[in-house]
Amino acid sequence: MMSGSSFQGGLFSDEVPGKRAGATMRLGVNGIDAETQDGQSFSLPYAQCRLEMGGASGRMVFCHSPHRTLTLFCEDPAFLPALGEAGRGQLAEQVSQLTQEVRRARKQSMLRGVLGLLVVVLIGYGVYRGFAGVTANSIEALPIAIDEKVGKLAMESMDLEGPKVTDPVLVQAVDEIMSRLKPHAGTAGMNFEVTIVDAPLVNAYCLPGGQIVLFTGLLKAAKSPEQVAGVLGHEMAHATLRHGLKRIANSLGVIAAVNLLLGDTSGLVAVAVELAQHGLLTRHDREQETASDVEAVRMMAAAGLAPTALADFFVIMEKDGGDVPGAIAWLSSHPQLVERQKEIRQRSEKLGAIEQRPFKLDWEQVSRHAKEPGKAKDAKP
Amino acid sequence: MDAEIRNRPSFANVRVHLRAGEGLIAEAGAMASMSPTLQMRARMAGGFLSAFARRAFGGESFFINEFATDTEGEVVLTQSYPGDITSVTLQGTSLMLQPGAFLACAPGVKLGVGWAGLASFVGSEGLCRLKASGTGQLWFGAYGGIIERELDGELIVDSGHLVAYEPTLSLSIGLAGGIFSSIFSGEGLITRVRGRGKIYLQSRALEGLAGWVNSHL
């Protein structure tokens, strides 16, 4: 805006060299007066003026003469309101209509923008899921030997957070639990090995290939061998469902999918070690936790054990979590316990009555040894 | 100031002869040769924010070179890719330039950045345009030949062929045909240009060359 009712803009006319020129416009009493830089003057009466909005910015106001022999244009935001007031409101109706059209166009443009963004997000999500699907399928096609190699390397690079336990009472108890579960594992030929570690952590985790780490803190917290069986079944399921490898492949993204399709697993192994060192290899998402719960329920039922024992262990963690030292480890790596309990109980009910064959272990003795591995003294029979 | 565009259209370059007291603004890196009587000074166009906007959104350099002389001399300017160069004289008017098209201008031409809209971004034409306005001569280049058209109506332009246009024209992005045709015809998205004003197109698209070369690697 120049001063008062003067605006900087331009005009199209056959009378100027090049048919266009920059111009200064003034809103007079009867019409718009325009003067080019060369001093050529033009006048467009309000009564003959036809307004239009457009241009590259969408905010340029065009004032056309009846046969479009003269077109004045201006992008100044104050130009349109000033036109509405100029010439005793002769253009007020056109200005009002144009303003409404502009508002409508802006709303439509915004709606299109939002819809466009939504479509882009949906397509992006679809592509991501598509690659995730390709990755998952590629993992399923890999031989178990890859899982074992990854698990072995990860185990070597991880800090166990305590000494390995050789207490025969604990080792035999865990062996007995595992011998009941192993025949019902979802994948045949996987070598499950449990390493008991003396640490107050109420936790257990399984590496690819079946390397399970079980802390004495969990053995102390569990009220029955069936509860430990539930946890071990859940961890075995992570291995049989190959969650660890999928976790690594997802970290590698699209490249992993392509490499795996080409049979190149070197990147997978390298990332496994990296993730293991940061404690991320054994962290699973909600979907994987639920899938492992479901698989654990199936294994427990097949082994003649009450599948609800896993849900019962979750209750202990939930109620006494604050009182059980180290329970935070399980809670942090196994979230949403309440919902998972419900899921486990519902699935157990659907399986109907099963012929239960409880363990004949002296659990009090196991708990005592878990408190002091290798030192606990048992009463002589 | 006298200027001549030479070696057109494939390897065009501009020779500008400056007299005492005259000046020229050119894109950084555009100078091919210059007389020792000219002084060249690099500066940010319109201050830091304006220069940043030019670099980030206008696809141009952060700095521009200013040529001046107390006597006289000449400078030869080129662009980094083969193609034609053209000039327009702004008389209080404006011209929107695609990223990378600007070559040089007279000191009376002001360089800014104009919003091109999301539709332009979707059509691979960028979010912003360099906007040249004011008074004086402006040079810009293209990949391939430059086609100048006076438009009063509508024109459909394939993405990547637009070089410059007057701000009186509006642009919208659309599909070249139906969804099937747009994908399999190789045309994809097109730019629909409407209104009255001048439009400058390039006869070749750099993306087209890049795609062709890539398919042979």
List the helices and strands and how they pair.
The complex is a heterodimer of chains A (381) and B (217).
Chain A: E1 6-13, E2 20-27, E3 31-36, E4 41-45, E5 50-54, E6 60-64, E7 70-74, H1 79-89, H2 92-141, H3 144-157, H4 168-181, E8 193-197, E9 204-207, E10 211-215, H5 216-221, H6 225-240, H7 243-252, H8 254-261, H9 266-277, H10 286-302, H11 308-320, H12 327-333, H13 337-351, H14 363-371
Parallel strand pairs in A: 8-10
Antiparallel strand pairs in A: 1-2, 1-7, 2-3, 3-4, 5-6, 6-7, 9-10
Chain B: E1 2-6, E2 13-19, E3 23-27, E4 31-34, E5 38-44, H1 47-56, E6 63-69, E7 72-78, E8 85-97, E9 102-105, E10 109-115, H2 118-122, E11 128-141, E12 146-158, E13 162-165, E14 169-175, H3 179-184, E15 189-202, H4 206-215
Antiparallel strand pairs in B: 1-2, 2-7, 3-6, 3-9, 4-7, 5-6, 8-11, 8-13, 9-11, 10-11, 12-15, 13-15, 14-15
In brief, what are we looking at here?
The complex is a heterodimer of chains A (381) and B (217). By secondary structure, chain A is α+β, with helices and mostly antiparallel strands. Chain A contains 14 helices and ten strands.
Widest sheet, order of strands of chain A? 4-3-2-1-7-6-5
Q: Give the CA-CA distance, first to last residue of chain B.
A: 46 Å
Rg of chain B, rounded, reads 18 Å
Oligomer: heterodimer
- Envelope shape of chain B: globular
By secondary-structure content and strand pairing, the structural class of chain B works out as mainly beta
Write down the Rg of chain A.
Answer: 38 Å
Q: State which percent range the strand residues of chain A make up.
A: 5-15%
Mean pLDDT of chain A: 84
Write up this protein.
The complex is a heterodimer of chains A (381) and B (217). Chain A is 53% helix and 15% strand. By secondary structure, chain A is of the alpha+beta class. Chain A has 2 domains: 6-103, PH-domain like, CATH 2.30.29; 142-371, no CATH class. Chain A has a 7-stranded antiparallel beta sheet with strand order 4-3-2-1-7-6-5. In chain A, α2 (92-141) runs parallel beside α8 (254-261), α4 (168-181) packs across α6 and α6 crosses α11 (308-320). Helices cover 14% and strands 54% of the residues of chain B. Chain B is built from 4 helices and 15 strands. The N and C termini of chain B lie far apart (46 Å). The model of chain B has no long low-confidence stretch (mean pLDDT 85). The A-B interface holds A 8, 10, 12, 18-23, 36-38, 54-58, 60, 62, 71, 73, 75, 113, 116 and B 89-94, 96, 114-118, 122, 129, 135, 150, 165-171, 194-198.
